[in-house]
Design goal:
mainly alpha; two-stranded antiparallel ribbon; 48% helix; single chain; 231 residues
């Protein structure tokens, strides 16, 4: 009896002994999705002897030996092209780059012409104003005498045949000279006004200037002019 009890106790103790962690089955490692490899970028390449050599198709840059310039719809001036080429070379422009600039040339020229014309118009308008201011400030012909001066000057122009009407296709336009005085601004020049004022004074009834349509001139013998009382 004693031996059986001992065997039973020994067996019980063996079954109740906790299992060591080292005896546990290994943990399951989660499977990972296989990494997809991105396809290699397509390149224009040639494989020679196991080495990859990149092909280059870039156009040559820099000034060409001779520029071939053309602008659609416009015939380029040979002289201007010859003057432009050294500038293109100094800037290091290729033929394509130089041709790309050509369309800007007509626009730049047009803007330059417009700016030059506007500058001339502005200068002319300023000159006209300066002459008018000088005329108004002149005590002999301007200021309080302006109305009288304008009347006499117009009279002087009429006396010379430079009338303010009667010309042109419609017969109502001024004489070309009188029109030019107005368009150029010289009609405001103090000396021009002074001169025609003097002519207008001479064209008066008691003036020395021969008036237009003075009538038929009577021929008087010399003896009658010397002795008007003799009959």
């Amino acid at each position: 009896m004693t031996d059986e009890t001992a065997v039973t106790e020994s067996t019980t103790q063996t079954n109740d002994t906790p299992v060591s962690q080292t005896d546990a089955p290994p943990a399951t490692v989660p499977e990972t999705a296989p990494t997809e490899t991105a396809p290699a970028a397509e390149t224009d390449a040639t494989v020679l002897g196991g080495e990859t050599v990149e092909e280059t198709t870039e156009a040559p840059v820099g000034p060409p030996e001779k520029y071939e310039l053309a602008l659609e719809g416009i015939e380029l001036d040979v002289g201007l092209v010859a003057e432009a080429e050294p500038i293109f070379r100094e800037l290091g422009l290729s033929n394509d780059q130089a041709n790309a600039l050509l369309p800007l040339a007509p626009k730049l020229m047009e803007q330059a012409q417009q700016a030059s014309l506007q500058a001339m118009l502005d200068a002319g308008a300023q000159q006209r104003k300066d002459w008018l201011d000088a005329f108004n400030a002149d005590p002999e012909i301007g200021g309080g005498k302006r109305s009288e001066t304008e009347h006499l000057a117009a009279k002087g122009l009429d006396a010379l045949g430079f009338k303010n009407t009667g010309f042109g296709d419609d017969g109502k336009s001024p004489h070309p000279f009188r029109q030019a005085l107005n368009e150029t601004g010289f009609g405001n020049h103090p000396d021009m006004i002074r001169a025609f004022r003097a002519i207008g004074q001479m064209a008066g009834e008691d003036g020395l200037f021969a008036r237009e349509n003075p009538g038929v001139r009577e021929e008087v013998p010399a003896w009658k002019a010397m002795y008007p009382d003799d009959k």
